[in-house]
Specification:
This protein has about 55 residues and is an all-alpha fold. It contains three helices and no strands.
Length: about 55
């Protein structure tokens, strides 16, 4: 049984989308902080945000 190219493309797109979704869910806090970091005020807010994820 041979799959058509459209079906195979759809399967791989689903696998990649699931992998990206899994990455965002599992690394959500770090990723979200990285996105919001440029809009944080310099000083205490920025230091507190970085210290919450620092090892």
């Amino acid at each position: 049984m041979v799959e058509s190219n459209d079906t195979l493309s759809l399967i791989w797109a689903g696998i990649i989308a699931l992998a990206v979704f899994g990455y965002v869910v599992m690394e959500g806090f770090d990723l979200g902080l990285g996105i919001l970091f440029p809009w944080l005020e310099k000083g205490d807010d920025r230091n507190t945000a970085i210290n919450t994820i620092a090892p």
